[in-house]
Amino acid sequence: MNEKVKEMLGTVLYLLIVLGFTYLVITFVAQRTTVNGRSMETNFHDGDNLIVDKISYRFRDPERFDVIVFPFLYEEDTSFIKRIIGLPGEEINIDADGKIYINGEELKENYGKEVIDQFHHGDREFPILLGDDEYFVMGDNRNDSKDSRYREVGNIKRSNITGRAWVRIWPLSSFGKIKK
Fold first, then answer.
1. Confidence band (pLDDT; 50, 70, 90) for 172?
2. Of 112, 127, 141, 161, which one has the fewest beta carbons inside 10 Å?
3. Confidence band for 25, pLDDT divided at 50, 70 and 90
């Protein structure tokens, strides 16, 4: 075999290895996603680019206030990004004043952009009891978010969670690890 053929086969093999490795990383480890819309303001903005960690939930359970990515079941190639509010087995309630209660105790958090107004309680009946593998999620922009308060999103099953938002890569001025 002459040198040119060896060099070409080596290059093809190298490219196949790189493509295979890239496929494995995107499928099982991490992927880039873009925030589309205002539902997570003021913490995430339209156009922000994030790296989603797809591996950590194989070793630990999602936690309250984690920001997760999951597919929207009614639109192909569409994912949502929301914050976990309720954990499996918990009872979630939202009162007339927009306060969130977990198992009867008011949720102490500072992620919501504003108090939930009377027109944005969703179309589901409260209280909501989560199943053993279900999570209740909400956008940080509580009055401009389709989330678990609405039937079309509902409770998120663990098996439907793609991963957690891990690093913001764009805009560069906001580059860094995403904190809970």
1. confident
2. 127
3. low
- Maximum C-alpha span of the chain: 79
- Rg over CA atoms, the chain: 20
Which of 170, 148, 166, 158 minimizes the C-alpha distance to 66?
166
Positions annotated as catalytic residues are 39, 82
State the pLDDT at residue 57.
Answer: 92
Q: What is the DSSP letter of 154?
A: -
CATH number at residue 171: 2.10.109.10
Higher pLDDT, 24 or 176: 176
Calpha distance 118→111 (Å, rounded): 19
Containing 10, the helix (H) or strand (E) segment is helix 3-24
Give the number of domains in the chain. Answer: 1
Parent domain of 145: 3-177
CA distance 74 to 121: 21
Strand ranges, E, within the chain: 30-34, 49-53, 67-71, 79-86, 91-94, 100-102, 105-106, 128-129, 134-138, 156-157, 163-170, 176-177
In whole angstroms, give the CA distance from residue 142 to residue 147: 9
The CA-based angle 46-112-168, given to 5 degrees, is 40
